[in-house]
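hey
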C-alpha cells in the first residue's frame, strides 16, 4: 500500500479545526486532528510546506518510522506546532492501519481493559448559587464526575465562570479578549464554593477544579490544603508547568490529587513530574502530544509510577481527537478519567463518529479504524475565521497566565 494524496482541511463549524486526510492506492483513507487552538494556520503551513510532500509514495503501515522521521529528522524537535502536525498524520495512519486490519483501533492496540470510559464534564456559574445549580443539572444528566468553576466576587467573568461556554469562538474572538485576575480573591473564594457544592449535592459525585496555571507553587499548595475537606478528585493545572520542580513544593503540603498536562507536547514536558510522582493524573492528549504513537508511550511510562491517564477533552480538539483518545482510554491499563465538555451540534454534523455517551460513560464504538470521519462538503460551508484565546491581566494591568 502507498500514500497517494494528503489533504489538509480547515473548517470552522463554531470554532476552527485542522484535519489531515490521507489517501492510499488501495482505496483506504484515514483522518487525523491537527488543531492548535488560536494558531491553526501555523500548523497548516507546517503540514503543507514541510510534511505532506514527504508522505507521498510512503507505506502508510510504517507508522513508527514515519513518526520518527518527522520528529527526529527535522532536527528542530518538539513544540506545539510540530507535534500537532505530526499528531494529525499519526492519527490518520492509525485509522488506516486499523481499517486494513478490519478492526476498531482499541483492538489493534491490544484490546479493551474495561467496558466503558468514565468521563467528567463542566459546570460553572457567575456565582456560587449558579454553580451549585449547574452541578445539579449535570448530575441529573447522569454524570458521575463534574469539574466546577465559579465567578469571583469583585472580578468580571473569567474563563470557565460566565455565560459564555465556548472559548476561541470565531465570531466573538477575532481579537483576544482580555480578562482580569486576582489570586488573593480567588484563594479566599474557592473553599466557599466547594463547601456549598458538598452541602447540597453530597459525596456521591466526584468533584474537580481547574486553576488554569494561574498560581505559584506555594499558592497552589495553600489551595490544595484548603480544599482537602472537599475530597476533590483532583486539582488541575495549578501552576505553569515549565518549572517541573515547583511541583515538589505542592506535594509537600497537600494530599489533594494533582492533574496537569493538557498543554504538554512530549514526554519530556512531564518526565520529572511522573518519575517523582509529583502528579496523580497526566492530561496529555493525542492532538497536542504527537498522536497515538506518542501518547501511548506517555501512558505506558506513567503506569510505572502509579500516574493515571486523564486526556484533555475540551472543544478545541475535534471529535476525531476524542475518538482516538477513547480508543486509548479503553485500552490503557492505568486509565483515570476522560474529559468531555461536549460539542456544538454543527461540529458533530461535520465530524460524524461512532463514539457514544451514556450515563456518564463514553465508548469509542466498534467501527473499524478510530470511528470518526469528516464530511468534506459540509465542512466547506464553514470556512476558517481567525480567532484567539483570551489573555489575562492582574488588576494592576500586569500580563498574567491564561
Amino acid at each position: 500500500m502507498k500514500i497517494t494524496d494528503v489533504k489538509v482541511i480547515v473548517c470552522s463549524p463554531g470554532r476552527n479545526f485542522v484535519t489531515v486526510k490521507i489517501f492510499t492506492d488501495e482505496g483506504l483513507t484515514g483522518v487525523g486532528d491537527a488543531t492548535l487552538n488560536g494558531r491553526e494556520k501555523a500548523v497548516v503551513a507546517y503540514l503543507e510546506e514541510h510534511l505532506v510532500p514527504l508522505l507521498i509514495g510512503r507505506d502508510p503501515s510504517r507508522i513508527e518510522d514515519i513518526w520518527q522521521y518527522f520528529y527526529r529528522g527535522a532536527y528542530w524537535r518538539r513544540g506545539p506546532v510540530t507535534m500537532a502536525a505530526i499528531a494529525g498524520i499519526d492519527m490518520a495512519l492509525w485509522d488506516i492501519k486499523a481499517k486494513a486490519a478490519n478492526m476498531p483501533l482499541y483492538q489493534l492496540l491490544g484490546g479493551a481493559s474495561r467496558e466503558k470510559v468514565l468521563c467528567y464534564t463542566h459546570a460553572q456559574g457567575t456565582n456560587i448559587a449558579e454553580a451549585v445549580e449547574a452541578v445539579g443539572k449535570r448530575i441529573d444528566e447522569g454524570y458521575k464526575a463534574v469539574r466546577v468553576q465559579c465567578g469571583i466576587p469583585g472580578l468580571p467573568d473569567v474563563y470557565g465562570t460566565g455565560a459564555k461556554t465556548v472559548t476561541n469562538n470565531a465570531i466573538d474572538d477575532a481579537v483576544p479578549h482580555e480578562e482580569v485576575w486576582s489570586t488573593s480573591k480567588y484563594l479566599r473564594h474557592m473553599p466557599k464554593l466547594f463547601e456549598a457544592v458538598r452541602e447540597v449535592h453530597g459525596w456521591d459525585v466526584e468533584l474537580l477544579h481547574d486553576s488554569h496555571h494561574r498560581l505559584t507553587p506555594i499558592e497552589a499548595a495553600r489551595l490544595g490544603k484548603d480544599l482537602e475537606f472537599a475530597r476533590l478528585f483532583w486539582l488541575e493545572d495549578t501552576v505553569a508547568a515549565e518549572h517541573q520542580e515547583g511541583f515538589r513544593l505542592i506535594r509537600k503540603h497537600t494530599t489533594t490529587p494533582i492533574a496537569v498536562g493538557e498543554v504538554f507536547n512530549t514526554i519530556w514536558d512531564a518526565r520529572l513530574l511522573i518519575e517523582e510522582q509529583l502528579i496523580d493524573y497526566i492530561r496529555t492528549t493525542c492532538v497536542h502530544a504527537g498522536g497515538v504513537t506518542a501518547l501511548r508511550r506517555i501512558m505506558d511510562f506513567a503506569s510505572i509510577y502509579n500516574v493515571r491517564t486523564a486526556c484533555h477533552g475540551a472543544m478545541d480538539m475535534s471529535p476525531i481527537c476524542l475518538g482516538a483518545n477513547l480508543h486509548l482510554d479503553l485500552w490503557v491499563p492505568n486509565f483515570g478519567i476522560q474529559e468531555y465538555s461536549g460539542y456544538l451540534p454543527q461540529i458533530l454534523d461535520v465530524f460524524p463518529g461512532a463514539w457514544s455517551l451514556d450515563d456518564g460513560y463514553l465508548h469509542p464504538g466498534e467501527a473499524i479504524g478510530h470511528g470518526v470521519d469528516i464530511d468534506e462538503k459540509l465542512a466547506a460551508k464553514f470556512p476558517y475565521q481567525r480567532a484567539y484565546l483570551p489573555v489575562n491581566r492582574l488588576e494592576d494591568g500586569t500580563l498574567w497566565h491564561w
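The domain at 3-104 is CATH 3.30.390.10 (Enolase-like; domain 1). The mean pLDDT is 95.
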